[in-house]
Amino acid sequence: MTVPKSHPRYESLMKRDKLIDAYKSGMVAEAGMIAHGRGEAFDYLLGECTIPEAEEAEMAAAALLLSAKNPVISVNGNVAALCPEALVELAEAIPAKLEVNLFYRTDERMKKIVKHLKDHGAKKVLGLKPDAHIPDLEHARGLCTNEGIFTADVILVPLEDGDRVQTLRKMGKTVIVIDLNPLSRSAMAGSVTIVDEVTRAIPNITELARGMKGHPVPKFDNAANLRRAIDRITHSLFEIRCVFK
Ligand code: PTJ
Known about the structure:
Elements: H1 10-24, H2 30-45, H3 52-67, E1 71-75, H4 77-82, H5 84-93, E2 97-100, H6 107-119, E3 132-133, E4 143-144, E5 154-158, H7 163-170, E6 174-178, H8 185-189, E7 192-194, H9 198-210, H10 222-243
Bound molecules: ligand PTJ.
Ligand PTJ is lined by residues 29, 31-32, 35-36, 38-39, 42, 76-78, 82, 102-104, 159, 161, 178-181, 184, 197-198.
């Protein structure tokens, strides 16, 4: 079925199509479809746009990535499927390393995602040959490379599932999270949490980074920023409720 561009949910339906295709080709995990649905629900409440709190976080993220000695972008199945070109552009603009790191790790998925990133312009993608392990992380996300995630000082983790963020923070790293759910464990554990849809957030960070080289890292209070994002959702629910009074 072809969806006309005039359809009010065109963008959203196109993203779903990308994920369905990537699921069928073995890049996206089954659970990735469920994760996307949860993200969509939060995006709906945010008005499907980049809120001012996200803009502020994206600016902090760009400055932190630019100031890092070893910045790394961690890539999972959903993110690779949704915005491969944007990931490669961000990695080049900083410059930062790309490393595939999966929760539902299989050799087959790892290879497919690395190839997909390379097909979209990535020159080098880490992750296929892990030679380090994040301490105390017993699942597959613990597997990483010494050149990349293990020695990264600033790491960007879009669509994460919580415990790795906490462990990476304990290792002393600055962790930038992208998650539409401001209540998630990852969101709360991040150093900087961007409450925005990943296909908007990544190009925004790239554009900001291009104009920010040499700028100092702005002050950023993650807990206060998350509280404001949650207030915005509460307010938007209240407004919707008023329509039905
Ligand atoms: O590819 P793998 O094997 O590493 O698995 C990836 C998933 C996403 C399946 C895995 O990390 C997972 O289960 O994640 P969670 O715990 O469901 O968390 C994903 C979070 O990302 C949720 O809080 C969603 O609200 C949020 N999210 C989903 N889609 C988007 C999003 N945030 C930003 N942009 C999105 N497109």
